[in-house]
Design a protein that fits this description.
The protein is mainly α. The protein has 5 helices and 2 strands.
Amino acid sequence: MPERANSVRTVLLVVIVVLLGQVAWQAWRIENLKVDVSYNRRHIEEQAGRLSSELLKGRRGEIVQATQWLHEFYASDRGLRRANGLWLAPQNQPDFEAIGAWIFDVYLTARVNGASDEAARRAIADAIKATDEWRRAHQDN
């Protein structure tokens, strides 16, 4: 019996050593995968930045026209009914927050994702119509 107990201990010891080796190897693989993911994320972000830059090149006129449309929409009866459109008279400046939100966040995102100019403008109008400011301006309807 003692010989059998020694054999069982030896087998268990070998199994434990093998398992510890597997754990160490898996830990090493996980660390390498984390490094790979980090590298790939940086690489993808760099490529996305370059791609975005390429997609936006030459769109200055389009952005100016979209901003002009937004200004007119803000002033219009179907828009926010602001007499001065995007102009904030008390601050003596344009509504930069609106330009950032509607032109950069909605319009350009839609255009870069393949939407037409008309569809991107419609997305802005629909989003504005979901705001509290639009609801207040149209309470009488």
